Amino acid sequence: MEFIRITNLEDPLFKQMYQLMKDVFPKEEVLAFDLWKEPLEDPSIRVFVAVHQGKVVGATEYRYYEDFNVAMTDFTIIGEAGLGAGPFLAEKRLEDLHELASANEKKLFGMFAEIYDPYQVEHHSFGGVKPMDPYVRREVLAHLGYKRIDFTYVHPSWNNDGEAVKGLDLCFLPMEKGTTDLPTPLVVEFLRRYYTVLPNKPESWLSMIEDLQSKSRIALLPF
Q1: Across-strand partners of 182?
Q2: Nearest-angstrom CA–CA distance, 64 and 85
Q3: What is the gyration radius of the CA atoms in the chain, in angstroms?
Q4: Helix axes 203-212, 184-194, angle to 10 degrees
Q5: DSSP state of 126
Q6: Of 24, 30, 59, 199, which has the most beta carbons under 10 Å away?
């Protein structure tokens, strides 16, 4: 299996990956095809696919913030079960992130990710791929060491229509064992940076940020 970075909208591998995204994710979570041009060309956004026998069988997008010394996994897609695409992507992504942090003369602090709450989103089929089932994914993330950040999470729709997307948790994978909470300013500033690209923020998102600002630390909880 190969771990290949995509930096061009015209790359045939991207077309395969985009079809996977449409098959797996709800439509409000998928950025329009043409709007991918700038993200793919942005050196800070890393889009990789897992390729098996010439076919895209998985994909992941993530980024590393040098000033925060944290990463964010935008998404992970497993297109076929039984090939080990999930562990392969997780391992290669973490290797890359440790290299980026080392080049920044730091040790990676941790990584954010969004995860569907299966008790709220059972109606999503996620392409019928069992490893993408929210129950399975939460168990996988738990085994990897991710923790749920203790607040009610919403995010702006990627349609940029001002709608709030619910049914997800924001979680965090600390690199240092025994980490039980995070400084809330890190969470707030990360979310502001991450969603700068979407100017139409729903009121519930703004209220969520305001509420977070009233706290100094925020707990990390098991799933």
Answers
A1: 218
A2: 22
A3: 17
A4: 150
A5: G
A6: 59
